[in-house]
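Task: complex structure prediction.
Instruction: return C-alpha cells for all chains below.
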Amino acid sequence: MSSEKLKIAVLGGTGNIGEGMVLRLALQNLMAEGVKNEVIIGSRSKETANEAAKEAISELENCGFDTSKITITGNSNHEAAQAAEVIILTIRFGHVLPLLHEIREALEDKILITPVVPMVKEGDLFVYKPPEEGSAALAIQKNVPASTKVVAAFHNIPAGKLRDIVKCKAVHHALVCSDDVEAKKMVINLTEHMGCMKPLDGGPLKQASIMESLTPLLINLAKLNGLRDLGINFS
Amino acid sequence: MSSEKLKIAVLGGTGNIGEGMVLRLALQNLMAEGVKNEVIIGSRSKETANEAAKEAISELENCGFDTSKITITGNSNHEAAQAAEVIILTIRFGHVLPLLHEIREALEDKILITPVVPMVKEGDLFVYKPPEEGSAALAIQKNVPASTKVVAAFHNIPAGKLRDIVKCKAVHHALVCSDDVEAKKMVINLTEHMGCMKPLDGGPLKQASIMESLTPLLINLAKLNGLRDLGINFS
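Output:
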C-alpha cells in the first residue's frame, strides 16, 4: 500500500448503503484491530460529497466518538477514485457502467469492491435481473482495466443495520468473492472489523451471481413474512 | 383431503434427503400439533422401497419412539404417487422429467413438492445450472397436469441434519414457494413440525430459482470455509 493509512473511496457514498459504509469504515480507526483508513466520499458533485463528509464527521461526534483519528473527505467520483487504493461502488447498477467508463484510468491496479445488485420490481416483489455476463460483478470486470482487482462483497447487509452504528447488535454473514486471492483476503480483513459483519469466503468472482440474487430474496422475504432489515447467517 | 391421515409419498425416499424426510414426517404423528400422516416411500423397485420402509420403522424403534401410531410403507414410484395426496420428489434433476412422464396420470389434483436442485460440479465448486424454464420448479410445473399444485420447498436443509432426528438441535429457515396459496399454506404447516425447520413464505413459484441456487452456495461455502452441513437463517 502506498501510505500507512489505506485510502478508501466510497463512490455513491451519499446514498443509503454508502452512508453506513463510510461510518463503519471510519470507526475502524478507533479499533485495536481495525484497518486504519482515510475515507473519501465520491459523488457526482464535489460539493455534495464534501457536505456528506462533514455530516458523517458530525454524526460520529454526536454519537460520542473521538474523531481526532478519523479522516473523511469528499470529492468528485473521479478524484475520489484517483486518490484511493480501494474503491467501493455503492451505486445502482444502471449508473455503474457509464461511471466506470468515465473513471477508467483511475482504476488501474486498484481494488474495486462491488456490492451492486441488478434487480427490478415486478408487481410487489423484486426479481434479480443480471446482465448478459451473468452478474453485475462479471459485467464490471469486463469494463475495467485488466489490472483492476474486482471483489464482490457487502450485497446482503441491510442498509438500516449498516447505518445504525450505535444500536445495531446484529452480526450477519458477508460473502466475499474474487478471482484475486490477495484482494479477497484484504476485503475479508476489512469486513471483519465492520462491526455487523462476519466474512465468509464466497469463492471466485463467477459465484457473485448467487450473492447478488440474495438481495431481492431478502427484500421479498421481509415483505412476504412481515419482517424487515433481513440479513443472513449460515450455520 | 380424502382420508383422516394425509398420505404422503416420498419418491426417491431411499436416498439421502429422502431418508430424513421420511423419518421426520413419520414423527409428526407423535406430536400434539404435527400433521398426521402415512408415509409411502417410492422407489424404482417396490422391494427396495419396502426394505427402506422397514428400516425406517426399526430406526425409529431403536431411537425409542413408539411406532404404534406410525405408518411407513414402500411401493414403486407410480403406485406410491397414485396412493398419495402429497408427493415429494427427492430425486436428482436428471431423473425428474422422465419420472414425471411415467407417473403423469397419478399427479392429477395432487400437491407436488420439489426440493430438486439442478447443479453441476465445476472444479472444486458446484454451479447452479437451471434448465431453460429458469428453475427445476418451473420445468416441473411445465411437465405435470394443470391440476397439479407444484410447491418448491426443502432445498436448503442439509441432509445430515435432516437425517439426525435425535441429536440435531439446529433450526434453519425453510423457504416455501408456490402459485397455489392453499397448497403453500399446507406445506408451510407440514414444515413447521419437521423439527429442524422454520418455514418462511418465499412467494410465487417463479422465485424458486433463488432457493435452488442457494444449495450449491451452501455446499461451496462449507468447502471454502472449512465448515459442514450448513443451513440458513434470516434475521
